[in-house]
Amino acid sequence: MTDAEIFALGCLGGALPDVLRLIxxxxxxxxxxxxxxxxxxxxxGLVGLGGLAALLGQxxxxxxxxxxxxxxxxxVSRAFGGSRAELLSRPVGPGLLKRLRWWWAx
Length: 106
Fold this sequence. Notes:
The protein is mainly alpha-helical and about 110 residues long. It has helices at about 5-25, 35-55, 60-80, 95-105.
């Protein structure tokens, strides 16, 4: 597999958690966060992180590349997210750091 294929499959893996979350809630209507630019910015970051993890992990097979891409966002969210109890409600207003910590704790 070429590096571009590994990166693309890792990106697919990075997108899977959010895609699965949307599929799970498909009967509840479109979530409010889909209209937020911050969601799309973080989603693009997760997708890129998944591709980068697959490249750095030197995945040999498609399954490995998707797995690296899928798990990379989980590791980052555990490292930077903080506890869910203190970040249960979505922060409003300024404070990028607080908003980032809330996002990663989801």
